[in-house]
Automatic annotation (TrEMBL):
Pfam families assigned: Usp
Family: Belongs to the universal stress protein A family.
Annotated SUPFAM superfamilies: Adenine nucleotide alpha hydrolases-like
Species assigned in the record: Massilia atriviolacea
Gene3D superfamilies referenced in this protein's UniProt entry, alphabetically: HUPs
Protein's name in the database: Universal stress protein
InterPro entries the UniProt entry points to: Rossmann-like_a/b/a_fold, Universal_stress_UspA, UspA
Record-annotated UspA domain positions: 1-145
């Protein structure tokens, strides 16, 4: 039914649990996994003429965000390897994470987007996460929204 599943993460504990559930789902479906971390784009300081010496360059920022992305995606990669699921990891840059998720799913021909109902920026259990909500409204691909019953570690 599904051959390639896009699993997103923002690096939060909730997102890591969701990603592991996504890998289990992929194993049940016999699908490959494309793990995605979307990092914010580089932001220039307000006064570009006066850049503080401690402010990272665009290249330093990109390298740091790729390292962070690799750390966040490594948990998905390890879960996939343990489950015997083929997994590719990808770090992308965009200020609109939801639109980048939809774009990557289209470009990489994913059959399903698997993501959490809430990530780092949710208001507890009050509302569906804003990124998830935007993905649902901008894609024609099926989206499986995973919801944790209780917070990790409780």
């Amino acid at each position: 039914m599904y051959r390639k599943i896009l699993i997103t993460t923002d690096g939060s504990a909730v997102s890591k649990h969701t990603a592991c559930a996504g890998v289990k789902f992929a194993r049940q479906m016999g699908a490959d996994v494309l793990a995605l971390y979307v990092s914010p784009e580089y932001q220039y300081p307000v006064y570009v003429e006066i850049i503080p010496p401690s402010y990272p360059s665009e290249e330093e920022y990109a390298a740091q965000m790729k390292r962070i992305g690799h750390e966040h995606l490594d948990a998905i990669l390890q879960a996939a390897q343990a489950a015997g699921v083929r997994c590719e990891c990808l770090t992308e840059f965009a200020d609109a994470a939801a639109l980048k998720i939809v774009e990557v799913a289209e470009q990489r021909q994913c059959d399903l987007i698997f993501m959490g109902s809430h990530g780092r920026s949710g208001w507890g259990q009050l509302l569906l996460g804003s990124v998830t909500n935007k993905v649902l409204s901008h894609t024609s691909k099926p989206v499986l929204v995973h919801r944790l019953i209780k917070e990790p570690g409780t």
